[in-house]
Design brief:
With 349 residues, the chain is α/β, with parallel strands linked by helices. It is built from 10 helices and 17 strands. The strands form 4 sheets. Strands 3, 4, 5, 8, 9, 16 and 17 form a 7-stranded mixed sheet that branches. It has a 6-stranded parallel sheet with strand order 12-11-10-13-14-15, sandwiched between helices. A two-stranded antiparallel sheet has the order 1-2. Bound molecules: zinc ion (ZN) (2 copies). The site of one zinc ion has 7 residues, from helix 2.
Length: 349
């Protein structure tokens, strides 16, 4: 039987390479030849360092990687749309397909025992091939690369959803707190949706330097005690109409709220941690709204790749390190150290 190499994450900050049989697509399934597989912050937080997750975040010792992108190599019986050779992104959660959440495209929220996320409960993208359900596929437009597509599967999709939730447009100035891969993505998408002034802050010098190098914001600065003044100064003393917290940190979340003007809208997408703020001055009296936003839905992911092509928006430029699959251990080590943009495993053939 033909075999392929795949990566398991034992949960002690190491990577284990194993040989697996190349799967055969069943009814309604396709076999995707992997071309790019990027690492998400959640992989590090909830799987690589230790197996933290419960429920939908419980890692079941499957092939890792929930940002897969590739080309359809084989189509099982009963497929209705995709064919061999199609370039595809995997929406990274396969829901039951028939509950209300699945019917609205939010498989992320599916609570059926049949729900399985790629790289968490079913085999994901860190292998030469990935077995996918056809209904989880998003067509990758010709103007986007496979690495662009991989970045969409979780990260860029999640940021797009958050920016839709706060309804960012050309009316708005946008503050992004935390300039890891999610923060960089948020700046790029906010710009695509027309936001006129972009402000990015972080505590990490390497991340500030990368955001500056990529020219992703009008104002990029340190998230320290002077940050709020700098944000006010850049916005005629008012603050931003929209903010996104990608820091997952209490002080970062405070800054995302306090950096808003009256009636401002903030979305939290950074996971973990806690937050402390003073409701009356921070949100009530200034009529602010704070949203939580988790991943995106299938339809919005299709919208996003279409718009990214139109906006000439390429997530690949946020990728600072690429590795072949047999050096996936180095990819995870690099991402774990955090002094990087997005980290990708790529296949050259
Ligand atoms: Zn993710
Ligand atoms: Zn469902």
């Amino acid at each position: 039987m033909a075999t392929m190499q795949g990566v398991i994450l034992p949960g002690n900050s190491t990577v284990e390479f194993r040989e697996f049989p190349i799967p055969e697509p069943g009814h309604g399934q396709v076999l995707v030849k992997m071309k790019a597989s990027t690492i998400c912050g959640s992989d590090i937080r909830a799987i690589y360092r230790e197996h933290l997750g419960k429920g939908p975040e419980a890692y079941q010792n499957v092939i890792a990687g929930h940002e897969p992108c590739g080309q359809v190599a084989k189509v099982g019986p009963g497929c209705r749309r995709f064919k061999e050779g199609d370039r595809v992104v995997l929406y990274h959660i396969s829901g039951c397909g028939v509950c209300h959440d699945c019917r609205t495209g939010y498989q992320i929220s599916c609570s059926s025992p049949l729900r399985a996320a790629y790289g968490w409960q079913r085999d994901g993208g860190m292998a030469d091939y990935c077995l996918a359900d056809e209904r989880d596929l998003v067509d990758l437009p010709a103007g986007l690369s496979y690495v662009d597509g991989a970045c969409v599967a979780c990260g860029f999709g999640t940021c797009y959803e958050a920016l839709k939730r706060v309804d960012v447009s050309g009316d708005d100035r946008t503050l992004v707190v935390g300039l890891g891969p999610m923060g960089l993505a948020s700046l790029m998408i906010a710009k695509g949706r027309g936001s006129t002034t972009l402000i990015g802050v972080d505590v990490c010098e390497e991340r500030l330097a990368l955001a500056r190098k990529l020219g992703l914001a009008d104002v990029i600065g340190k998230a320290d005690a002077s940050a709020l003044d700098a944000i006010k100064k850049a916005t005629q003393g008012k603050g931003c109409e929209v903010s996104i917290d990608c820091s997952g940190n209490s002080l970062g979340r405070q800054l995302a709220i306090r950096g808003l003007r009256q009636w401002g809208r903030c979305a939290f997408v950074g996971e973990g941690g806690t937050v402390e703020f003073n409701p009356s001055p921070d949100i009530i009296h200034d009529q602010k709204t704070v949203f939580g936003s988790w991943v995106t839905n299938l339809g919005h992911m299709e919208d996003l790749v279409e718009r990214m092509e139109r906006w000439d928006c390429h997530p690949e430029k946020t990728v600072t390190h690429t590795f072949p699959l047999d050096k996936a251990d180095q990819a995870y080590t690099t991402m774990n150290e955090g002094k990087c943009g997005k980290v990708a495993v790529v296949w050259e053939d």
